Structure formats: C-alpha cells, structure tokens
Amino acid sequence: MYCDEIKCRVTVDLMSEDDLPEILAIERECQPAPWTRAMFIDEMNAPRAHCLTVKAEAGERAFLAAYIVFRFVADELHLHNLAVSKECRRQGLGRNLMNLMKDIGLQAGITRRTLEVRSSNREAIGLYEKCGFVVRGRRRGYYDDTNDDALIMWAEGR
C-alpha cells in the first residue's frame, strides 16, 4: 500500500523511543550509512534538538512515513537527518518537514539554515534547492563509506 494510492491522514509528532523500530527500518532503506538507535536517542535527549515524525493512517493501517532531526546551533539551524519512506516519496512530506523546520526556526528568531548532503544524492539536493538552499561549499571525500563529497548548503531569510 503506497501513500499515493489511497488518501492518508498524516500527523506530525515528537519522535519517541517507540518510533525507533520504524525509523531504523526507514534509515536502512534510505541511508548508505544509517544512524543507530543510540544516535537517535542522543538527539532526542539533546536540549537544542528537534526530532519530529510524520505518521500516516490509511484505513486501518498506521505507519511512520517520515522524520526530521535538526538542532539550533548558536544563531543557525542545522539539519541533521531527514528521510521519507520509499513508499511515501513524492507526496510533499519532505518539503513539508523542511518548511516546518524553517517555521520553528523563525519562531525562535533564526533565519539561517544549513545542511550537508552527499554530492551523489540528487533527489535530496533537488528537494533542498526547492526549499531555497544553495550550495556554498564542498568537503571532498567527507563520507568514509563511499568517499562521496559533502555539499554544504545554506538558506537564509523568511
């Protein structure tokens, strides 16, 4: 069952340890170097971190469809992790989470946002560009597992 085949009701909630089995499954399907359970728990316990999930309900089926993890660092907002399950992509969930991150930052008076993305991750780069991010730097060979470069992207303003 795919998100685009039926109407889903979605809600955004704080990430909890109960969500981790589904989050870790999405991590494994989406990330070449998936985060561990401990990494997510560390983020959930960090005072300036925001860990949010998108949960979908379709008929009697309820499932976790996407999540985002970001932190306030000084006067900037740093995206640490964003993933949408493969079955729910291209439904606007990633863009909506990015907009929510921006809105949370603006409520705190933060207008500068940054992230790092694998240079080979064209789908993510496209999403970030649609959300107003531009490449401002590159870290060559940053990702040990694939020797991919990291693109440093920034967005500023409202």
List its salient traits.
single chain, 158 residues, alpha+beta, Aminopeptidase, globular
What's the CATH topology label?
Answer: Aminopeptidase
Unreliable parts: none
The secondary-structure class comes to alpha+beta
Count of the domains: 1
Description:
The chain is of the alpha+beta class and 158 residues long. It has a single domain (9-156), classed as Gcn5-related N-acetyltransferase (GNAT) (Aminopeptidase, 3-Layer(aba) Sandwich). It has helices at residues 20-30, 37-45, 93-107, 122-130, and strands at 9-14, 49-58, 61-73, 76-84, 112-118, 134-139, 150-156. A 7-stranded mixed β-sheet has the order 1-2-3-4-5-7-6, sandwiched between helices. The model has no long low-confidence stretch (mean pLDDT 91).
